[in-house]
Amino acid sequence: MIHLDVLTAESSVISVDVDSVVVTTLDGQIAILPGHVPLVGVLQPGELVVRTGDEETYLAVSGGFLRVTSQRVMVLADACEHAVDIDVERAELARLRAEQLLAEKAPETDAATVEAALRRSLARLRVADKYRLKAARRRAQPML
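RE: above sequence
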């Protein structure tokens, strides 16, 4: 097992022993297992997948930093929310608003800020979709 702490400026989101953690860094997704080499990295907006036994927990991370030692993963996130807590309607509206602003190409629009907002909303939507798909599969499984 490896210990995972996910923190934001406002709270401790999760602190638990896990089998593995998958995060999205500047270089893409990486899986972290017990005994991982030490690592410090920058997180991109994306999903954070926590695996413990047969269970997977999905979180949306808006960016931040990652510190890994052989027995601990610390995520310092700009913002983070559990998949079940994501307001899909709000995330979809944020995606549409960002896409519209980028399409308008208005000179007063800070494209980098809008692109970051788009990446955050897309990450939230992806995580929410994975959670809903997982819940639907669980409901569809026959009871033995």
